[in-house]
Amino acid sequence: MPESNAADDEHVKPFVYETLNSKALHFSLSEIQSRMHIDRPFALDLEYTGLMMGFLLFNSAPAELAMIGLGGGSLAKYCHRYLPTSHIQVVEINPHVIALRERFEVPADDARFQVLRGDGAEFVRAPPHLLDVLMVDGFDYSGTPPALCSQAFYDDCLACLKPNGLLVVNLHRGHRDYDIHVGRLYNTFGEEVLVVGGTDSSNGIVFACRGPLLQQLKMSVLRRPKAFDQAAWEDLKPSLGMVRATLRAQNP
């Protein structure tokens, strides 16, 4: 086992709570960071993760996708499985979270999927390439780190996207500065912002685009991408429907 160092010890160690049919990642007993069903390890169990996959309505096959925050790996595993043509990089600052990746069946690194230890704010300041989709789901023991919700951070997110690239952010609606954080996203992206609230969680999912993509979405019948099996698609459709309904309400 590798020895701990001072930098590692700065980060809070999460713990895994297991039942007969599930595993959950926690920093505290009161809040679940991620949950996996044993018999369906690649399914999205928490509602907010399905909402974040709403980017598929705008880009069903992003070439370059990055995530800030690994957690229990639900979104990382899902994108690896169902977006086979996407190159995926996941940036996680906490080494103790990365150390749990095998317990949550996060795939091994390969040519198109990598989990990188690093600071998400630094990553977007100097990305290796421009992104089609950037997902920000970085939480620690105290919530969203200030470095991942500052005005400078959102400005850097805009700069690291391709034209019509999409930023997807998970925010805690109960945070005292929630409205400030959403306001910063409007400051950076103008009117190309869509805020979707879940029905059974305290999460607010914000979509923000570098371009007019939100206005151009065609309200056609949802079609299952080839890589999705029928069960996975049926599970995801309610979340996609919620995103579409919010967009229709915002743009009647």
Structure report:
This protein is an alpha/beta fold and 252 residues long. It has a single domain (42-250), classed as Rossmann fold. It is 30% helix and 25% strand. It is built from nine helices and ten strands. Strands 6-5-4-7-8-10-9 form a seven-stranded mixed sheet, sandwiched between helices. A three-stranded antiparallel sheet has the order 1-2-3, with no helix packed on it. The longest helix is centred in the C-terminal third of the chain and has 21 residues, at 230-250. The chain is globular and about 45 Å long. The protein starts with 5 loop residues before the first helix and ends with a helix. The mean pLDDT is 85.
SSE blueprint and pairings:
Layout: H1 6-9, E1 15-18, E2 22-28, E3 31-37, H2 47-52, E4 64-68, H3 74-82, E5 87-92, H4 95-98, E6 113-117, H5 120-125, E7 131-136, H6 151-159, E8 161-172, H7 178-189, E9 193-197, E10 203-209, H8 213-216, H9 230-250
Parallel strand pairs: 4-5, 4-7, 5-6, 7-8
Antiparallel strand pairs: 1-2, 2-3, 8-10, 9-10
Helix pairs in contact: 6-7
Question: Which descriptors would you attach to this protein?
Answer:
alpha/beta; Rossmann fold; 252 residues; 9 helices; 3-stranded antiparallel β-sheet; 7-stranded mixed β-sheet; globular
Order of helices and strands: HEEEHEHEHEHEHEHEEHH
Can you name the CATH architecture?
Answer: 3-Layer(aba) Sandwich
Count of domains: 1
DSSP summary, beta strand count = 10
Radius of gyration: 17 Å
- Derived structural class: alpha/beta
- Unreliable runs: none
